[in-house]
Amino acid sequence: YNGQCPGPLLRIPRNRPVHIRLENALGEPTSVHWHGIRLDNAMDGVTGLTQAPVAPGQSFDYRFTSPDAGTYWYHSHHRSWEQIGRGLYGPLIVEEDTPVAVDHDLVFLADDWRLDEKGVLENTFGSLHDAAHGGRTGNWLTVNGDTRPPLKVRPGARVRLRCISAANARIMAFSFPGLSPMVAAVDGQPLATPLPLNEPLELAPAQRADLIIDIPPTSDTQFDIQEVSTGEPIRAAVMAVDGTPIREKVLGETLVLPANPLSGIKPDLIHARNMELLMEGGAMGAMNGAIHQGKMFDMRSLVTETGKVWAFNGIAGMGKEPFVEIPRGQTLSINIINDTRWPHAMHMHGHHFKVVERNGQPVSDAPWRDTELVEVNEKVRIALVADNPGKWLLHCHMLEHHMAGMGTWLSVV
Ligand code: C2O
Ligand code: CU
Questions:
Q1: Distance 205 CA to ligand 1 centre (A)
Q2: 254-304, pLDDT tens digit by residue?
Q3: At 221, is the pLDDT very low, low, confident or very high (cuts 50, 70, 90)?
Q4: Nearest Cα to 322, choosing from 330, 312, 331?
Q5: What is residue 252's predicted lDDT score, i.e. its pLDDT?
Q6: I need a labelling partner for 307 at 20 to 30 A (CA). Which of 95, 131, 264, 337 fits?
Q7: Which ligand is nearest to the CA of 166?
Q8: What is the CA(322)–ligand 1 centre distance, in A?
């Protein structure tokens, strides 16, 4: 976007309309989705559901208002497994009404790339093998489009690190040896009580976390940020401490980000509409077949004739009918059942949700999220208040899984 990858950092105010014009200079259609923003349905950027693809040479005016401050991102939502995989994404920050008291506000946008021996991006996008397994994972890691970039900070500084995963499929995990980050927000939504990061920060595709990191005042060294998901730590970036100390003593108080409007909302589980979403398919799965575009296929013909390998409730890919139609204002509760051999990063458009039950056990005070990792054999019940009218996608953000059938939609009327 604008000649760079990641695209330009967009910083927009909360609660004020913004206008962003997409000009399509590609040789193929595209669109932009504002991931995690609870915006007007017509601006959600989902081709085939909320808008027509923007043809080469054409433009599209996105106009929206974000009710929530926080860390978001934008990306293509057309053939996303390839367009995001090739770099059509960027960070999107919605500013708090009054600036938050940090010394450095830094973006940490991670992606992995699959390179061949010559270091060239492998042109194997949309591979059915990837789609049936864990998706397209890469062998080269970048942060903010760079390899092991230094993030410059002053001694004693309080840093807000906005971590974003733009990976197609890899579940990344970051550790911060020598530092003690606090998790202040996930998926853009502040935690009422920030939590110390006691284990590596897990980021499934599309997830975000805002970390508050206090750099020791006496340190003049550097701190590695490591990606540890494979068990062999890789240096992802470096906190390069330099300059005169900003303060002599570490700040005592932990920083609590100002609440977003969602903090006052409670899903009404008593009067909720209860649904089940059964995920099936993929390699080593037990699926026998599924319906695609109204037609029943056995597993073999599903794969060879439609390129689909996954299904939600027996339907592979988008149906004509919504998964559920729900009146505006009602609580929707969905028990997501992962009956596959692979984890899935489930993303809900236009709404944030809370996990209210895991494997049948109630969960209290889960944070508001827009993307939740559902592990193998797990049952995760999420709840949301369906307060945003329109057609909203619900899909796996492992982009090859979405391509190969893991997407449905719901209608808020
Ligand atoms: Cu990040 Cu359907 O999108
Ligand atoms: Cu998936």
A1: 10
A2: 999 999 999 999 999 999 999 999 999 999 999 999 999 999 999 999 999
A3: confident
A4: 312
A5: 84
A6: 337
A7: 1
A8: 17
The C-alpha atoms of residue 28 and residue 176 are separated, in whole angstroms, by: 40
Q: Closest Cα partner for 136 from 112, 163, 118?
A: 112
Closest ligand to C-alpha of residue 132 is 2
Closest ligand, as measured to the CA of 92: 1
Task: State the closest ligand 1 atom to the C-alpha of 75, by its place in the atom list counted from 1.
Answer: 1
Torsion of CA 21, 24, 28, 29, to 10 degrees: 20
Summarised one tens digit per residue, pLDDT across range 361-394 is: 999 989 999 999 999 999 999 999 999 999 999 9
Nearest atom, ligand 1, residue 349 CA: 2
The Å distance, Cα 402 to ligand 2 centre, comes to 7
Tell me how far apart the alpha carbons of residues 85 and 168 are, in angstroms, rounded to a whole number: 6
Residues with CB under 6 A from ligand 1: 33, 35, 75, 77, 206, 347, 349, 393, 395, 397
Strand 172-175 relative to strand 222-227, pairing: antiparallel
Give the amino acid at 216.
Answer: P
Whole-angstrom Cα distance, residue 109 to residue 6? 8
